Amino acid sequence: MKADRWEKTIARNELKEGVPAAAKIGKRTVLLIQAEGRIYALGGKCSHYGAPLEEGLLLDHVLTCPWHTARFDVRTGKMKSPPALDDLDSYETKVEGKFVYVRKIKAEVPSVPRGKDGRIFLILGAGAGGLNAALSLRKAGFTGKILMATAEADLPYDRPDLSKGFLAGDTAREDLILKPEPFYQELGIEVLREYRAAAIDKDKKEVEFSNGRRLAYDRLLLATGGKPRVPDIKGAGLPGFFILRSLADAEAIAAELVPPRTVAVIGASFIGLEVASSLRSRNLEVHVIAPERVLMARVFGEEIGGFIKGLHEQKGVVFHLGKTVAEISGNQRVNELVLSDGSRISAQVVIAGIGVVPATGYLQKTGLLVNGAVPVNARFQSKDPDIFAVGDIALVPDHLSGESRRVEHWVEAQRQGQHAGLTMAGSTEDYRETPFFWTNQHGVSVKYTGFASSFDTVVYRGDLEAKDVLAGYYREGVLRAAATIGRAKELIVVSEIIKAGGNIPASRFKDPGVDLFDWIKLRPGHD
Hints:
Layout (H helix, E strand, L loop, with lengths): L6 E5 L9 E5 L2 E8 L2 E6 L13 E3 L2 E3 L6 E3 L5 E3 L8 E7 L2 E6 L15 E5 L3 H12 L5 E6 L11 H7 L4 H4 L4 H6 L2 E5 L3 E5 L4 E4 L4 E3 L2 E4 L3 E3 L12 E3 L3 H8 L7 E5 L3 H11 L4 E6 L6 H4 L1 H13 L3 E4 L3 E5 L6 E4 L4 E3 L2 E4 L3 E3 L15 E2 L11 E3 L4 E4 L6 E2 L4 H15 L11 E6 L2 E7 L6 E7 L4 E8 L2 E8 L2 H12 L6 H4 L18
């Protein structure tokens, strides 16, 4: 589609106020939206994973993607919230006769904002938090030097897809890389690879790295994420034993996945279950060993946990629940696992997925740590006002409950990084996001929003077995979180209500006759 050509889309009378409508122009999908009497047009596929945006929710000129809740301003196509990194195409619109016509607006080329700023902002970590902080700094107009140091050898990549598409063999290595090197050069973001932080000198404002380099900073962002827990099991050092955190880990595992090998997964974490799902899709025999008796009960409750277990079993995954691994044995490599009840599993590959701990070893002498993590305020500042922290290592105040939360999920780290970048650039706005995460197992996507460190009541709308359900998690009568399979738009509504400090009584939440979309009008602060 040429930028200067007007293209006919749909009839004007097909547009309804606040309801996105998709139109095809050749192979391109354009989204048309009428809001407050004006017609806007933008790219119809989410710039994250290509979700159809006509299925999203429009609220106050912001369109939320139905898959992973990226947000876009429909007036400009600008990305407002990750996991998307890019804006959407934007179009001019006009009405001639009965039809709406669109013409593509030339996209802006990203570049370093003009101006002089001699400060150096150093970011430790090039994952979800670090990358989004760097991008946010440039979008906020910061013109100083941005250094992003990562312990890994790769440019920032799509970490969530390691346990999903990459191990399933559906995603190529090059497709994991989020942006090519020229992108960072255009924005003046220097990515320093194989730079592992070793120590911080707060007085000198310097970071020492394990490669012997020292870098000075004016402001510092800690976004080093987590490191996998390694089980204390005899034989865990044998060839064939793996943990999964990095792209290098995933490549090492993939190199061993030669049928008819059997894989044992230690732990029923999100990573562990996603790995099990991916490897079954490759027709490998997969066993999962975990101490709990109901999967994901602490997060999703027993009913959804039982459903997830059944989903895996239908695909051939074998569970050994209520058990642990006592020993991994083999001569030259992994060959067998001995379980806590004395039973044995023959396996040639073992993958541990038992969670992560904050990667904060380099902070031991800084005085910034409390119980292994970095407490921050609502603008991600630590007790040192020039040092910020986000992601797996940060203890963030929840704006509703007042509890400190540490959420180990990609989208939350992205949004924290985005906000921290704004703060470092001068914003004084507090962070008020509601956490969101998703997991995809055997083709079924389970999405979750909110923060419920505990809950005493779970209520449901819809039919779990039909994969059309919304669950609400309550504590003391207050809706704290929700999860869904198949009801993405309702989940977005609930997320907005929770974020604004609103509530839906449990009796109304589970009533199929109640339209949750009406509740969005009642959220605090809504005009």
